Amino acid sequence: MTSPVAVDDELWSAIGDPTRRRMLDLLLADGGGTASSLGRQLPVTRQAVAKHLGVLDRVGLVRATAAGRERRYRVDDAQLAVAVAQLTSVGTAWDARLQRIKRIAEAIQHGTTNTEE
Amino acid sequence: MEYGTIEREIYIDAAPEVVFDVVSTPEHLAQWWPDTARYEPVPGSVGEITFGDGDAGKVVPFTVVDAVPPRTFSFRWAHPADQPATDSNSLLVTFDLRPSGAGTLLAFRETGFREQGWEIAVLEQQYRDHVTGWDHFLPRLAPYVATLQVRP
């Protein structure tokens, strides 16, 4: 039914890092980029950028091609779609909704008035 | 197409009858999820939920599958408006309730194809405030929240 948990966890941690999300944003906006081009736009070293790109590459969120002495990276749209749908939107959205259900039900139970009805 | 499931279980300090009302009636649904909800909370009822306001809003089909107070409520959503809901064109959400002490254990499950989930993710990202933004929801929850011993 579901993907292997290990894969889900790796995707989550790959996309859960703010620097890596920013890198994905930049790669999407620019249509691709290299460790150098990303390093110029981010407050981290080129080495750190390369390390982050390695993480993204390992879970399939980016694809690399040779570009002179560097590797050029593009976002893998299909994998990004899977990741965002699975990890960002669906789970957290339902967590928030369930918390709202809990608060509303407990408010009613504890004798408050539903003023919107 | 890849099939996926999300499952959660939470304890709610309220009777199953109360929780059932909150998860099943359109009036309450519109307080914890969409902006409006229109359906009858009975099996087979076909209606819709909307996100956003007015012309900019999105209308999403909503079909009640099962309603057994105060035990279970399930619905399908996000199927094409001109098609009946099936297991291949919609997401199935199920709430199962069981008493636990003075309260209720609420088990939530959503199943469907991940590709379908991505379409929804795109839709909801357009209305991100509605999905993750407490800033948006707190004003309308204020009548409730103000009377609670709030524990974040």
TrEMBL record, chain B:
UniProt domain Activator of Hsp90 ATPase homologue 1/2-like C-terminal: residue ranges: 13-145
Top-level taxon of origin: Bacteria
Transmembrane segments: none
Pfam families: AHSA1
InterPro entries membership: ASHA1/2-like_C (IPR013538), START-like_dom_sf (IPR023393)
Family as reported in the entry's similarity comment: Belongs to the AHA1 family.
Protein name: SRPBCC domain-containing protein
Species this chain originates from: Cryptosporangium japonicum
